[in-house]
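Progress note, sequence design subtask.
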């Protein structure tokens, strides 16, 4: 999944493909909606306007493995699969109320074939996606476990609704702790231990299913894909 307006921090002009979505209605998708299934024929491409979508892989045993989280407005979902013709390794599931626009893959492909500028912009954005995946893989080697825990919390705080309270900025995590642990490749038990340390230091507070960000900007944040 690619962010349409960001290449290594530089702002891009909107890609020509966005005109394709102008006549598509903005639809709200409820939590748990499956946008496509692994191995299915690619039929649609989505433009994310608001919300959060998780991209998952089903292993041979049927267990879900989270590959990526999409939260940036302007993210295209399913574009690579449209080019390939099918959803090879992933499915996309809405994790909170999300607003998107949708066009048929056939229309998307036709525009790529006919519009050289669109094709070039899409190629650059796919290169950004590839670079980001390599960067995230490298982070598993050079970031500490604590940094790997703090970074997605800070990143998710940009996508989730934050409610100011006397206890700090209240946020409801859109992922279960098991899913968050899976995303950063640590065990759920280790994740809970690290969260406990961060909480003792006064940066966060967990209470009745809510997460309070007391010192959000002190959480590690380098780059959140």
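Output:
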């Amino acid at each position: 999944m690619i962010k349409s307006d960001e290449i290594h921090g530089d702002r891009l002009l909107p890609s020509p493909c966005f005109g394709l979505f102008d006549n598509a209605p903005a639809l709200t998708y409820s939590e748990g909606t499956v946008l496509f299934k692994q191995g299915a024929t690619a039929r649609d491409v989505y433009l994310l306007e608001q919300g959060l979508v998780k991209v998952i892989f089903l292993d041979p045993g049927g267990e879900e493995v989270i590959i990526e989280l999409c939260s940036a407005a302007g993210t295209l979902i399913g574009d690579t699969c449209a080019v390939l013709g099918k959803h090879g390794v992933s499915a996309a599931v809405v994790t909170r109320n999300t607003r998107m626009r949708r066009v048929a893959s056939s229309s998307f492909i036709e525009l790529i074939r006919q519009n050289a500028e669109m094709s070039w912009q899409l190629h650059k954005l796919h290169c950004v996606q590839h670079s980001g995946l390599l960067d995230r893989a490298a982070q598993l080697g050079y970031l500490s476990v604590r940094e790997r825990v703090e970074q997605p919390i800070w990143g998710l705080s940009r996508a989730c609704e934050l409610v100011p309270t006397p206890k700090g900025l209240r946020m409801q995590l859109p992922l279960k702790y098991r899913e968050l642990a899976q995303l950063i490749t640590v065990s759920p038990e280790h994740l809970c231990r690290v969260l406990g340390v961060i909480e003792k230091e006064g940066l966060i507070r967990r209470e009745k299913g809510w997460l309070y960000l007391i010192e959000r900007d002190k959480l590690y944040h380098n780059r959140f894909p």
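The helical segments are 79-84, 105-114, 116-142, 145-159, 177-183, 188-200. Work on this subtask will continue into the next period as scheduled.
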